[in-house]
Specification:
alpha/beta; 22% strand; 8 strands; Nucleotidyltransferase, domain 5; binds zinc ion
Length: 292
Amino acid sequence: MKYFEGLCPRCRSPESHFRLHGTYYRKCDDTRWRRFRCMNCQHTFSQATGHPYCWSRRRDLHEVLPFEVGSAKALRRIGLQYRAARSTVLRAVERVARYLEPILAQQLANNMACGEIYFDEVEDFIHTRWKPVSIAMAIAADRSILGLRLAEIPVRGRHSARARAKYGRRPDQRASARMELAKYVQPALKVDVTIKSDKHPAYASLWRKVMPEADHQQFKGRRARRDGYDELKVGGFDPLFVFNHTAAMLRDNIKVLSRKSWCTAKSLRGLERVMIIYQYYHNNYLVPPLPT
Ligand SMILES: [Zn+2]
């Protein structure tokens, strides 16, 4: 296994210029790794050079993070359980997210020709309710999360004037986040894909632009049920149940998204990393049918 794409990390010479340069022992996971020297620039490097986990001594954390983050555990509690400092867990989250992002993109590319998707947004906040964010998601009919994008949004409602005085005016990044997400999932969709969403006026023009041939069906939004994490709706059959149920799973399985919790996300980028890790866990462990 190599992570430097067969090219010298410094001068991009091809593999024919490499000579073997001994090995080294990695203590944290008891493995031995080969080193190379580039005959063009004399730079030395190893099989592990360029890997997102390079230089990490807490590979045990990288292994357990998707399971723990996807099982409603706070990052500080993960640190307590695995005897790691808070900053170590944060660094591990960053590395794992960086490692999983291309894997998710690859899985999306393999999952060609989706015939039906659900598209909507979930609202949450960073640090306090006065700093709301929106999470745009595209969900396939088999419940896997195709992609998600986070956006800062302006505060609304009763205390919005006080919130603006305290934290300043917030930009509305929703339109660009939605467009970015639509373009990200677009290659994995059938030309005549069925897109189901609520009656948000911006969704119609967005999908007309990105997927002009698509059959876009919009359904009237409904009041939230008292149970169901404010995501499941009242009444009988819900045409957007796939999205709403996945949103409820997010609320149940990600600690910082849970309702009435003491635990809050501290930064947009941090929340994004947790969401990437959860997306991987959701698509690969929660959604596929359990073995019987
Ligand atoms: Zn070189």
